[in-house]
Amino acid sequence: MDLEDIRKETLKFKISLAYWEYMSVLCTEVPENATATCNDPSNPCLFNVASDPCEYFDVSKSHPAIVKLLLNRLQFYNSTAIPPGNKPQDPRANPIFWNNTWTNWFDYLDQNSYSFVA
Length: 118
What we know:
Layout lengths: L2 H21 L40 H17 L38
Protein name: Arylsulfatase J
InterPro entries: Alkaline_phosphatase_core_sf, ARSB
Organism: Armadillidium nasatum
């Protein structure tokens, strides 16, 4: 890497940092007049993330058509989803056994020489 490459990389990094402040959201304590209580799946919330990026104020009651549109879209996506192909949980997959790395550990497992003590 020559000096020009280093300058280009430094410039890219500085530009990235400059944009980071626009991409970051710093949320304060929840305001006393906050309306978002989204714990009930049968009563979904809707937020205006442009004016309320911390999602304190639920606007679903004032925009039921948007909620319906989004729920229909989710229903469509769910109707085309493929069931998960996950295998049952296996304690041997714990990253602590693989250099604290999430990896496709089963490919490297020697079935004849591995023992696991829980």
